[in-house]
Design brief:
The two termini are 52 Å apart. The longest helix has 17 residues, at 147-163. This protein is an alpha/beta fold.
Length: 986
């Protein structure tokens, strides 16, 4: 006999074995409780069953509530029930993972029959336990169109359940929330359309059951169209039977086809299904037996909803309600409040002939069959070692991130405002209502310069008027509407006055409102031009929202419910991303976060050995920032901690993120030719030793220029400034900032240029055709002059107008001390040689400082995030957001090796050409990598082969530039190699 025929035969035999002796249509549907080895299953069930007395068998019908946050008295009560009543199982509620695991082991050790351990965990075990993350609520999931993500969530929940020794999740909710005023379901439902609910419920269920955890569909026959909460009263549903079949039972029928293993029957009064007084559906034989089991052919386990709920307990005492539920046809009596009394009443009912012992035995065997399916035939205690770490893994976080991201729904987008474009032509402000929205504001600032404001929910009229005044000069206001609740009676926590404030703002400005909470709260937002649904308010959604608004991520969500004419089921859909950076977990792009964690030890070592007082490390893979951590402080002494907004002096990174960018921009447009000479652009150089230098040689450091010129030495005498060059305060002819309280004469830049032009050129080596490679700062003084001559504009202004502004880089700038709070800028050297003061907010390089803080080789400041944006634009082949800055051909030409003498490109540094040697880059970096290092302790590298970016920022020159430990210890290169190890490279 073939394996397939054997399975059909075995299924039939098992079905007959556990049936009540009546052959009916239910036998035509495969029993969802049968395992792949039905004979072994039957043998185990019979063995356990036969070892139990009738009294002990009755115990299998009960599951009681257990907590891991209660006192010893509660533990003793549960322990006593387990031992004396042979309980079928426990449903755990509030507590902590480790405590629950230890209690589970304790209770299981006392049980004669292995216990079912269950939890009502609709959005994961965090619904009941601390120390673990939330999965999205059902309404959020309803907006997700990718069913594979919902399945992945179910699978991950199953893994967590098994780590905790649990077997049943009382989820998913399959109620079709057709009533917006439903006080108990609402956000707990996948939506208001039966197809959406069914599709998502099937995916969730399969994720659980395919991975060894029993799913439970609730609340049968449908709690979606109620205006009462069965926890507190008995809701009445007056819909006709045909409507219930058409809508509420539809998801169940779809789930039954996919082998759903269990159902929870709700405490509802549905006259069209049973008109016997005010009988709850959980106690109705017409509903539980006639409808669910006979007419719908369901053969899985049937649970009551909790028997302590007022919807059923208000008219039935403990024990009595258990008997009624059993007589109605339920298999498992959930949250029983008096097991001994219930047992006594059931035995009396058997004696009275109200239910047969045979029928009870059938249900007990059904429960045991499910226990075998769940693996309780091979019970093992829970391993509690590092349990919390095993529950919340990087993969867990990635799934959560992906689900929330895919749910974001752009419901209205007037004039295609989103994703934001032309960032340099807009002034932005954010307003958080009902919450500070710190993460929301932080991530908005990663995309553009923002000023942030917040007000309390339902603030008074004065506050609203003041807010209107504060916001009047901004072009775009991004509003985070927070403090949203799930109460229809309280308008979901949205104050009408707050909505009016939004409407007043929208009359005069561009406004985008992000609703962080229950979608039904949008009832009051009808008519607004730009509304985005985030569905929930937490750190994840606050971080994701700006990514959607600026095109770091696509918006894919579909509104799963109908609220009004504007916000109806199906609005939303795909809003394309715009190639801006996104933010997420390493695992989401295939990196091993546990290996990236090794960066911590290297960075902490650097601080411990005083190679630098602090640092920022950032990693981008496939356009997503997946690692961004801050270490140490701004100074070695007690000082502010480094954070992601700390601005650093980039030193020679200026060469590639300012001057070289400008040259590439102009070369892309044919305004600069790398084969031309300096004198073609700077006629005053004709006849000098610089005039015939070819641009390509200059930018490859092969033009014969000396490495550097100590310009400052000409302006000091006897260890002090010369008064004809500097003043301690700005004065006529002395307006060029060199440091705090130090101003250079206006002609100082002309002097530096004169000294540069006059400088010697190294001779061409004998027998060579060109100058030897000498890394020179003078390269960028000369190229800065070329750029400024071609564009007729200072380099600083050109870069801000064409690069930093359009790219939304709010911190990448020159002379930051004049533009931002000094406390957020990392200090550099305590300059005892030249400036005689601690340098902070002014460029560290003396020559660049004398040049006014804006030089082609140094002077640029910025955060790690802003550097990453620039490098991602390079990896995007010149595109970023809505701007196209440099041609792909130009990028390829400038970033490839341009010398037979060195590893250099044009302007760009690269790894050593020798195999296995990275030079300034990590040894594992491909040779196609390009980037640069900076004297202050910085580096930035982009790898086009792996679409990877690495940024390291520090102020290693604080307080002494002679500190070379960062280089000697290989801190930057070691971190670079760790990133490749996280990719699986060796």
């Amino acid at each position: 006999m073939s394996s397939k025929l054997w399975r059909v035969f075995a299924i039939g035999c098992v079905a007959l074995t556990f049936s009540s002796g009546k052959l009916d249509e239910s036998l035509l549907i495969e029993d969802p409780l049968i395992t792949g080895d039905p004979v072994a299953q039957v043998n185990w069930v019979d063995s356990v069953f036969n070892s139990l007395t009738f009294e002990e068998r009755l115990g299998q019908l009960f599951m009681v509530a257990a907590y891991s946050n209660k006192d010893q008295k509660h533990v003793d009560e549960i322990s006593n029930l387990v031992k004396t009543e042979n309980l079928g199982g426990l449903i755990f509620f509030q507590g902590g993972p480790d405590r629950q695991a230890r209690l589970t082991n304790y209770y299981q050790a006392q049980a004669k029959t292995p216990l079912f351990i269950a939890m009502d965990a609709e959005w994961g075990i965090s619904m009941r336990l601390d120390s673990v993350p939330d999965f999205p609520k059902a309404m959020t999931l309803g907006a997700v169109q990718d069913e594979k993500l919902v399945y992945a969530m179910g699978k991950e929940m199953a893994r967590q359940f098994k780590e905790l020794g649990m077997h049943i999740n009382f989820a998913p909710v399959v109620d079709v929330n057709s009533n917006p005023d439903n006080p108990v379901i609402g956000y707990r439902a996948f939506g208001g359309e039966k197809e959406v609910v069914a599709q998502h419920a099937v995916s969730y269920m399969k994720g659980l059951q395919d991975n060894g955890v029993i799913a439970n569909a609730k609340h049968f026959p449908g709690h979606g169209d109620t205006e009462a909460d069965s926890h507190y009263s008995l809701p009445v549903i007056k819909n006709p039977e045909q409507r219930i079949w058409d809508v509420d039972l539809y998801p169940y029928e779809e789930l039954f086809k996919e082998k759903l293993m269990s159902v929870m029957v709700a405490h509802l009064n549905v006259p069209s299904l049973d008109d016997t007084g005010n009988i709850p559906t959980s106690l109705s034989k017409k509903v539980v037996t006639d409808l669910l089991q006979n007419r719908m052919n369901f053969q899985g386990l049937i649970f009551t909803d909790a028997l302590n709920m007022r919807g059923v307990a208000i008219a039935n005492s403990p024990g009595e309600v258990d008997l009624k539920a059993l007589l109605a046809g339920n298999d498992v009596l959930l949250y029983s409040q008096d097991v001994p009394k219930a047992k006594a009443l059931i035995k009396q009912a058997v004696a009275d002939g109200r239910i047969s012992e045979k029928e009870i035995d059938r249900r007990v065997k059904k429960i045991l069959k499910a226990k075998y399916w769940a693996g309780l035939n091979k019970y093992k205690p829970i391993n509690t070692h590092k349990l919390v770490e095993r529950l919340d893994t990087p993969d867990t976080e990635t799934i959560i991130e992906d689900l929330y991201a895919d749910a974001f729904t752009v419901a209205t987008n007037k004039d295609d405002l989103l994703p934001f474009k032309q960032l340099d032509l807009k002034s932005f402000a954010s307003l958080s209502i009902g919450d500070e929205g710190k993460q929301f504001q932080k991530y908005l600032s990663k995309y553009a310069k923002f000023d942030h404001f917040s007000i309390e929910k339902a603030a008074n009229e004065t506050t609203h008027n003041n807010t209107l005044k504060k916001l009047e000069d901004y072009d775009v206001i991004v509003i985070g509407l927070m403090g949203v609740t799930n109460s229809p009676k309280r308008k979901f926590g949205v104050a009408p006055a707050d909505v009016q404030l939004i409407r007043d703002l929208e009359k005069r400005q561009k406004v985008v409102t992000v609703l962080f909470g229950n979608a039904y709260a949008s009832q009051q937002l009808e008519g607004l031009g730009n509304v985005v649904f985030a569905y929930e308010n937490n750190n994840v959604t606050q971080e994701l929202a700006p990514q959607v608004l600026f095109g770091g991520r696509a918006a894919k969500g579909i509104l799963p419910v109908t609220i009004n004419g504007q916000f109806s089921h199906g609005v939303g859909g795909y809003l394309a991303p715009s190639n801006r950076l996104s933010y997420g977990t390493p695992e989401s792009v295939g990196l091993d976060g546990s290996i990236l964690d090794k960066i911590d030890a290297v960075a902490e070592k650097a601080i411990r050995i005083q190679a630098t007082p602090g640092a920022n490390v950032l990693v981008v893979k496939d356009g997503k920032v997946v690692f961004e951590r801050s270490y140490g402080k701004l100074e070695y002494k007690d000082s502010p901690k480094v954070n992601s907004e700390t601005v650093y002096d980039l030193a020679s990174i200026t060469k590639v993120l300012a001057t070289t960018q400008a040259v590439m921009f102009l070369e892309s447009r044919g305004e600069i030719n790398m084969k031309n000479s300096l004198e073609d652009y700077l006629p005053e150089l004709k006849g000098t030793n610089k005039g015939k230098m070819v641009l390509s040689d200059v930018m490859a450091h092969e033009a014969g220029l000396v490495a550097f010129i100590p310009y400052y030495a000409r302006t000091v005498q006897a260890g002090s400034w010369r008064g004809d060059y500097y003043k301690t305060a700005a004065a006529t002819g002395f307006t060029r900032p060199v440091s705090n309280d130090m101003y250079g004469m206006d002609a100082l830049r002309d002097s530096i240029w004169h000294w540069t032009v006059e400088s010697k050129v190294t001779p061409v080596p004998r027998g060579a055709s060109k100058h030897a490679y000498v890394y020179s700062d003078l390269t960028m003084y000369l190229m800065q002059a070329v750029v400024e001559r071609v564009v007729n504009q200072p380099l600083e202004d050109f870069m801000d107008q064409n690069f930093y502004g359009p790219l939304g880089l709010s911190t990448m700038t020159f002379n930051p001390a004049m533009k931002m709070p000094i406390d957020n800028i990392a200090p550099t050297e305590n300059d005892l040689t030249f400036r005689k003061r601690q340098v902070q907010g002014y460029v560290h390089d003396p020559g660049a400082a004398m040049f006014g803080g804006v030089a082609g080789h140094a002077g640029l400041f910025g955060t790690a995030n802003d550097l990453a944006v620039m490098m991602q634009m390079m990896l995007n082949k010149g595109f970023y957001g809505d701007v196209n800055l440099i041609s792909p051909e130009t990028i390829e030409e400038f970033t490839k090796n341009q010398s037979r003498q060195s590893r250099r490109g044009w302007g760009w540094d690269k790894p050593n050409t020798q195999v296995g040697s990275g030079g300034s880059a990590g040894d594992l970096a491909p040779k196609s990598t390009f980037g640069h290092t900076g004297f202050t302790g910085t580096c930035v590298w982009a790898d086009p082969k792996n679409n990877l970016i690495y940024v390291f920022l520090s102020n290693r020159v604080y307080p002494d530039a002679n500190n070379t430990k960062l280089l000697k210890e290989g801190i930057r290169t070691d971190i670079h190699d760790i990133i490749y190890e996280a990719m699986g490279k060796k």
